Amino acid sequence: xxxxxxxxxxxxxxxxxxxxxxxxxxxxxxxxxxxxxxxxxxxxxxxxxxxxxxxxxxxxxxxxxxxxxxxxxxxxxxxxxxxxxxxxxxxxxxxxxxxxxxxxxxxxxxxxxxxxxxxxxxxxxxxxxxxxxxxxxxxxxxxxxxxxxxxxxxxxxxxxxxxxxxxxxxxxxxxxxxxxxxxxxxxxxxxxxxxxxxxxxxxxxxxxxxxxxxxxxxxxxxxxxxxxxxxxxxxxxxxxxxxxxxxxxxxxxxxxxxxxxxxxxxxxxxxxxxxxxxxxxxxxxxxxxxxxxxxxxxxxxxxxxxxxxxxxxxxxxxxxxxxxxxxxxxxxxxxxxxxxxxxxxxxxxxxxxxxxxxxxxxxxxxxxxxxxxxxxxxxxxxxxxxxxxxxxxxxxxxxxxxxxxxxxxxxxxxxxxxxxxxxxxxxxxxxxxxxxxxxxxxxxxxxxxxxxxxxxxxxxxxxxxxxxxxxxxxxxxxxxxxxxxxxxxxxxxxxxxxxxxxxxxxxxxxxxxxxxxxxxxxxxxxxxxxxxxxxxxxxxxxxxxxxxxxxxxxxxxxxxxxxxxxxxxxxxxxxxxxxxxxxxxxxxxxxxxxxxxxxxxxxxxxxxxxxxxxxxxxxxxxxxxxxxxxxxxxxxxxxxxxxxxxxxxxxxxxxxxxxxxxxxxxxxxx
Amino acid sequence: xxxxxxxxxxxxxxxxxxxxxxxxxxxxxxxxxxxxxxxxxxxxxxxxxxxxxxxxxxxxxxxxxxxxxxxxxxxxxxxxxxxxxxxxxxxxxxxxxxxxxxxxxxxxxxxxxxxxxxxxxxxxxxxxxxxxxxxxxxxxxxxxxxxxxxxxxxxxxxxxxxxxxxxxxxxxxxxxxxxxxxxxxxxxxxxxxxxxxxxxxxxxxxxxxxxxxxxxxxxxxxxxxxxxxxxxxxxxxxxxxxxxxxxxxxxxxxxxxxxxxxxxxxxxxxxxxxxxxxxxxxxxxxxxxxxxxxxxxxxxxxxxxxxxxxxxxxxxxxxxxxxxxxxxxxxxxxxxxxxxxxxxxxxxxxxxxxxxxxxxxxxxxxxxxxxxxxxxxxxxxxxxxxxxxxxxxxxxxxxxxxxxxxxxxxxxxxxxxxxxxxxxxxxxxxxxxxxxxxxxxxxxxxxx
Lengths: 670, 448
Fold this sequence. Notes:
A: six-stranded mixed beta sheet; B: 15 helices
């Protein structure tokens, strides 16, 4: 049976190497590949489920055109004709900026660049800045450490103390769990900080459940204790940390008893965490993305990194800040600054819409207002905050093109849907953000139906519109040489990648082991001028209440919208394999919040605030912090879209989306 | 003989269900049906209890109770791998193997009307590969070992060793890492301490909605044996054709629950080991012998073989169920078909001494089961219990002592209804073995 080495290109930590087996031209099995040290045991259930997904009867195999509430099949010629004519007309009458080019993180690869090349040749467009996922943490890390990188995933085995702070790898990065288990088996300790009792917290010694959005207060109180108890690694701080004395003197305000009140914790727990950090070396803090989806989260992340800096837990085996490892990102800028809006807007491309405020910003565009949108690799009608407004903004457009594999909510809002390839149908090179490998994802099968890869779609559309794309977007037979050219620049080659995943040039197994920090001072910066200059924040990490919090909202329950193991954002959830595991949208709530509302297990609920509402089934759980409710993001509108309730609001730094600044109430559906 | 065995480490499993999906893909099962299942303990997150998972498929036990119970001889053991296999061309879909399996491994394939279960991925093993669930477990929680590696069977969370020699090595949760220490601020902690503990829910049983014909059979079979046994003493008059016809009808109805009715004849093949086979062989034998005796009005001695066959069938019927109960029912339930037949015998032959003492015994057994249910915090179904006691015990008692003809008229219908209720409750209370049930029991123990 033919088998090929490839890699999963989803927006996921693990980015597994897969050995795919084909039978009669169909994907039959997804076997593990031990050569990737981060994912030696093979794919998670989603990776395995490509066997269903790639050949799903629900895949879109032909161009479709809206006809009333339904879609009808049309030929490529018709589809490209309609799109080309519309785009030429809009360019002539309103200018290229009347088109929104919305590309998200649905799949990785160098060939993503095809879209920008097309819109450049078209004469420009309007595009997005910021990101829904992680930028507040990236920016906090950049300001503090100068660069987003961390130790190799397998180095976590060497940690004697692991703090999973707002991360639930059991569901979102399951391949990290064996390394944690190894560390625990060797006598290491695990602490989990999370308002939810998650799968990842089960083998932990301690679960700390702060009120969401108050992690900075917890971190600063721990720092307060470390300084007070002389647990600071002064030698390390003297050599490698800038701004320590200012930081230390700012901690007076964060006594454990004050922080305990803010966070809703006991003083004892804060002291225990401080004791552990003071007495256990090496320590790693593994931070998740959910925690930085608050309006105060950049400062939160800076406060947590500070704990590692003052205890000397940077640049050593088993120690460090495990957030984002961009060492393999050698083909694009690693610096989050690249995704920020230009200070002076102009040029043909208008970068004027914040991903976090997509709906409102789309509606607010002037000179010219938006008339059309092209969406690829994304499902903004589900995944961007305040999705009701996003829906309104898309409905206000004259013309929407969506490139998709499935009839997502966004595809359903399209005038023309173009069928998208699966990851097995075109070669590409992909990077990762947890492990350091660069991987080849070769073409191993022909596309079904009339599916074409995006490169071919753009080239064909270019021909219809007389755009010159030669040398800009490679033809299918030029893909390998296109990839090779870019690999050679980095001292790599396709032949090497064909053997297996490769490490990038200059790769550090232990990040910052050279103690070189790409900050203005060349040191770890607890005090950052740029935090003030760029973001108008305090130069030091601090705690302020999030914009929407239990003290400011008129709604009583904080809604958390985490990811689950059964889905990558809004992908995979529609598969029958996944529906069997998770048939419907569940809202988890604590019995203490359910009982006064007369809510029992399995009751149908309406979750609402003044932005929107959705329906879900009640799941009672004692492990959730009372006052919080939790529902996974990514369900399509036919099941319930949690983002109908979230606010289109940016994080304090990095232009991220503050999804979790979201208060709701819950009532029984009669 | 050394043969492969599953290895499962509770510390490493995160409940991701990749193994469950792997089984579906490798065996090309429908997307929603796997031979391996991941079970979640403490889904309600009770603070005092650990949350953990068990990934369970067939354990290919040394002592194959499934194979022994199979009435159709559809089970076999692969000599190379030791895997227990179901022959799809022989299985009649009676579900009995799934009732006797303490691990709930065999499951019904409704499309084909047969039972299916894990095959240990025999083709992969033959290729030198691990079973798909083992090979594709992303956390290495599931592994492959050998029965010769010297592992011992032990009781771990959610898994009680049933003494069958499962090919499964379990690594229990490490001490000190069973659950996290959780502490909230005093106000929240006080609030939570007032909340009621989660209720114990699903255990595995026999669904009367699907298996109502079995209830009908086990309710009326004792009546038929009782009626027949009163014939020799000339207390009852049983028309031979009606007797045989009713008996055959009951049997046919009971066979309705088979997944593959065309192969129903195979049910007798397992007589060496299966109580189900024995019941089904002895019942028509009883009918035949009884019919001959009734039709040709043979001497009394000729009734004895028929009576023994009837009693044997009822005994097999009782054993069939007691051997699958996972612990909560008594070894001798008040609705035992043999006991009930004795009661009918007493009534129909007018041996009031016998009737009264069997009735007393049934009352005691019934009450004991109710007290036990109440003590264990299960529902003792007050409404049904009252009905059963009023119709099945008080009515006969009044009839015996009042000697009133009105009570005598009511006696038989009242008893029949009462026995129906008792038999129904017997099915309700019957708990089949399952790791899920064990998990819930353990969860409750943690909280107490």
